[in-house]
Write a structure and sequence with these properties.
single chain; about 15% helix; about 600 residues; six-stranded mixed sheet; globular; alpha/beta
């Protein structure tokens, strides 16, 4: 007899295995094994439900600061065979009354003007733009909680990296700059110098975090590989790439990695951070770290840096107007009634939440900040437009657990995904008017004709229906007890008028005995809305991106989790529509 059940309560996720992240070992494993005579487990572990811990409150430590100048260094652009000089300037904030040593985080700003008086080089500018000071809201907060935070002045690279078609757009030079700063502080930690003898023995450089913004994001992405070529590489364990460029198609592996791309970014309007996530997610088969794609739906590019967002100093603090001059896009334009934009204050608050919690978990090992990074925890109300929340549909987080904690059903990397999945099980499409595989070319987002632009470069499936249709992938008696969530990334295809009210579908797990349990995708994801905004080709914000639909396995109670036969996606909630999909997998996200 077939068992059909339906569940709808929204659930949220808990924490990754910290030991696996910090000690570079896998976690989770086969929790269904018989240990010490105990009966084997037959159900997956539940996942955390609740509001993510908010790191916004200042900590107990007094924040001290040194502004430093280590002189100059030469940096090299290997694509142009060109060398030039940059300063070694910045500041470090740290807890002056901390017993012991402070974990190290380094911040790197992006490409911006270097001088408020236009036409000046950094050497002669009377009023330099202090872009490196734009993240003090983050550095002071982290320092008050026991971290040493270095913020690097990259104005000289900004004055030399030229356009994206000229050399590598400064990626290698920024990586060289970052590593040199870390080298200098490693020596200061050992022997002092430069007026910073109070830092001797006070810097814990055993696990380092990096944040880079814009071209600085691409710079810290490049730092990961460049650092490993050095005679004495640093142990970089976490990289937060904030609205990054990706002109060089970089892979970021063997670190915890977040790529954030604001939907209303008017500077990097093609959301290149998504490209970096897609490139990196399966790049190294034994990578012990998770990867994250994060899309704040109301965020622009500049407001994460307080100097770039300052209306009294900048002629165009809101970069969305670079793309949409009249600011009249229905979603991102600030002149449009009912727009979906975040204010500068809200965006700063969200930047603090995402970056501080990321570093306090993945660098500092503070497990109370793990909750958000498991995929579905509710964001704190202070980063919602009304200051109260909930507003989880404004922050779309996709999680890819480390290989030891995931089982890939279909990565869609091969056209064979139309017939067979990664497990060797059959794949069938029943009732669709069309379906196939596609891949976009980054910018301009062409390649998936169902929705152009699509700003994810992952190979993906597309499915179009005008009657009830079913995607089915066979699991061959799979045991999923060690895992906690069924995940997939879905994009609702813009341009299809059947999608304008959003989409929904039924997710079914079937076991080998024929028992079937179904849930609605919309009960577990806020990402199935129609992409907002005016057409991208008309200087609008509308584009398709692929976002997570994660369902806790406990929602499928009634199937035999030790012997699953198939997953079905049944498109029966709307009369017609189209979606794009990749990354169908089971994941473990909590101890």
């Amino acid at each position: 007899m077939e068992l059909i059940q339906s569940f709808s309560p929204r659930a949220t996720l808990g924490s990754f295995c910290l030991a696996g992240v910090l000690a570079l070992t896998g976690c989770g494993g086969d929790s269904s094994s018989n240990r010490g005579g105990e009966a084997p487990k037959t159900t997956p572990d539940a996942v955390y439900s609740g509001v993510a811990m908010d790191p916004a409150e200042m900590g107990p430590y007094t924040v001290a600061e040194h502004e430093y100048d280590f002189g100059r260094m030469e940096v090299y652009d290997d694509k142009r065979d060109h060398t030039y000089e940059t300063t070694l300037h910045g500041y470090i904030q740290y807890p002056e009354d901390l017993d012991g040593s402070a974990p190290v985080v380094l911040l790197l700003h992006g490409r911006h003007g270097t001088c408020y008086d236009r036409g000046y080089t950094p050497d002669t500018c009377p009023t330099p733009i202090p872009s490196y000071r734009g993240y003090e809201y983050l550095s002071e907060n982290l320092a008050s909680h026991g971290y040493a935070v270095i913020s690097v002045d990259a104005n000289y690279i900004n004055a030399n990296d030229s356009g994206p078609t000229n050399g590598d757009s400064g990626a290698l030079q920024r990586a060289q700059l970052v590593v040199r700063h870390l080298d200098e502080f490693r020596e200061i930690n050992l022997a002092g110098g430069y007026g910073m003898d109070d830092l001797v023995g006070k810097l814990d450089m055993s696990a380092i975090g990096l944040m880079g913004h814009s071209r600085g994001g691409e710079g810290v992405n490049k730092t990961v590989t460049y650092n490993r070529t050095r005679p004495e590489p640093h142990n970089i364990v976490a990289v937060f790439s904030l609205a990054p460029t990706d002109y060089n198609t970089l892979t970021v592996a063997n670190v915890a990695f977040t790529a954030l791309a604001g939907y209303c970014d008017g500077d990097v309007e093609d959301l290149m951070g998504n490209f970096a996530f897609d490139t990196s997610r399966y790049a190294v088969s034994n990578d012990p770290y998770p990867k994250f794609q994060l899309i704040p739906m109301g965020a622009n590019h500049n407001f994460y840096n307080t100097y770039w967002a300052d209306e009294t100093l900048e002629s165009r603090p809101d970069d969305w107007s670079i793309w949409d001059r009249n600011q009249d896009d229905p979603h991102c334009g600030t002149a449009a009634a009912g727009n979906g934009r975040d204010t500068a204050e809200v965006q700063k608050a969200q930047g603090l939440f995402f970056m501080a919690s990321f570093f306090r978990y993945f660098v500092g090992g503070e497990t109370e900040f793990a909750g958000y990074w498991n995929g579905q925890a509710t964001v704190p109300g202070n980063i919602c437009p009304d200051g109260v929340g909930p507003c989880d549909d404004r922050y779309l987080l996709s999680v890819l657990a480390p290989p030891a904690d995931r089982l890939v059903v279909d990565d869609t990397l091969d056209p064979a995904s139309l017939f067979v999945n990664n497990l060797g099980g059959n794949v069938t499409f029943d009732g669709f008017s069309s379906f196939g595989v596609c891949q976009t070319n980054g910018r301009p987002g062409e390649g998936c004709a169902v929705a152009e632009p699509t700003f994810n470069t992952a190979e993906q499936l597309y499915m179009v229906w005008d009657t009830t249709a079913t995607y089915r992938t066979e699991l061959l008696g799979l045991n999923v007890v060690p895992y906690q969530v069924l995940s997939m990334r879905i994009g609702v295809s813009h341009g299809d008028l059947d999608n304008v009210d959003g989409q929904d579908f039924t997710i079914v797990l079937e076991d080998v005995a024929g028992n079937r349990v179904s849930v609605l995708a919309s009960d577990y994801s806020g990402a199935l809305f129609y992409p907002p905004g005016r057409a991208f080709a008309e200087s609008g914000s509308q584009k398709t991106v692929l976002n997570a639909v994660d369902v806790p396995l406990t929602a499928f109670e009634g199937v035999d989790y030790t012997q699953l036969n198939a997953i079905e996606l049944v498109f029966d909630q709307t009369a017609a529509g189209s979606v794009q999909m990749t990354d169908v997998l089971f994941q473990r996200v909590e101890l």
